[in-house]
C-alpha cells in the first residue's frame, strides 16, 4: 500500500499529530472495508459478526441487548435490529427475561456457532491484512493504540 500522502493526494499536514490521526482513520476504514468484503462470503455484516462473537464468548449464557451494546465495537449500531436479522437467519434466539419482563435475552444457536466455525476456518485471510508487520511490531502497535485511547 502506498504512503498516506499518495493514497489521499495530500502532501502537507498541520503537524505529525494531524498526519497520524488521519492515517489511523484512513487505515481503520481500509481494514473495515477489507473485513466487510471477507464477511460477504458468509452473508453477514461486521456488526452481526461482532454480536455473534460476543454471544459465543458468553459460553452458552444469554446476553441482554444492553450487554451487547456495551461490548459492540461499533457503538452506533442498532443492536435490536441486528439481533432481529440474526434471529431471522437462525443464528440467534431471543426470549423475554424471566426476572425482568421488559428485558430481552439473546443466545447464539448451533447454526450461529457453526457459522463462526466456518469463518474461523478462514481466519488466516483476516490475519493477512496485518501481514506487513512482525509479531513484535503488532504488539507495539497494540500498545500504541491502547496508549492513544488512554488519553481520553
Structure description:
The chain is mainly α and about 150 residues long. It folds into two domains: about 1-40; about 45-120, Arc Repressor Mutant, subunit A. The chain contains eight helices and three strands; from the N terminus they run αααβααββααα. It has helices spanning about 5-10, 15-40, 45-55, 65-70, 80-90, 110-120, 125, 135-150; strands at about 65, 90-95, 105-110. It has a three-stranded antiparallel beta sheet. Strand 2 (about 90-95) and strand 3 (about 105-110) form a beta hairpin. The longest helix has 25 residues, at about 15-40. The protein is elongated and about 60 Å long.
From the 3D coordinates, which CATH architecture of the largest domain would you assign? Orthogonal Bundle
The radius of gyration over CA amounts to 19 Å
Order of helices and strands: HHHEHHEEHHH
- Tell me how many strands there are: 3
Oligomer: single chain
Summed up, the domain count is 2
- Give the overall shape: elongated
Considering DSSP H and I runs of 4 or more, what fraction of the residues is helical? Answer: 55-70%
Low-confidence stretches: none
Arrangement of strands in the largest sheet: 1-3-2
CATH class of the largest domain: Mainly Alpha
Look at the helices and sheets and give the structural class.
Answer: mainly alpha
Distance between the termini: 30 Å
**Mean of residue pLDDT?**
91
β-strand percent reads 5-15%
The CATH superfamily of the largest domain bears the name: Winged helix-like DNA-binding domain superfamily/Winged helix DNA-binding domain
Amino acid at each position: 500500500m502506498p504512503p498516506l500522502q499518495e493514497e489521499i493526494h495530500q502532501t502537507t499536514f498541520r503537524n505529525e499529530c494531524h498526519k497520524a490521526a488521519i492515517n489511523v482513520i484512513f487505515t481503520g476504514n481500509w481494514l473495515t472495508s477489507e473485513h466487510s468484503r471477507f464477511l460477504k462470503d458468509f452473508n453477514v455484516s461486521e456488526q452481526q459478526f461482532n454480536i455473534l462473537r460476543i454471544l459465543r464468548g458468553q459460553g452458552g449464557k444469554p446476553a441482554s441487548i444492553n450487554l451487547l451494546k456495551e461490548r459492540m465495537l461499533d457503538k452506533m449500531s442498532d443492536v435490536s435490529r441486528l439481533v432481529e436479522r440474526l434471529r431471522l437467519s437462525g443464528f440467534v434466539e431471543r426470549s423475554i427475561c424471566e426476572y425482568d419482563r421488559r428485558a430481552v435475552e439473546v443466545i447464539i444457536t448451533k447454526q450461529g456457532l457453526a457459522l463462526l466455525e466456518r469463518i474461523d476456518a478462514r481466519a488466516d485471510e483476516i490475519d493477512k491484512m496485518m501481514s506487513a508487520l512482525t509479531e513484535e511490531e503488532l504488539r507495539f502497535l497494540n500498545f500504541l493504540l491502547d496508549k492513544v485511547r488512554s488519553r481520553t
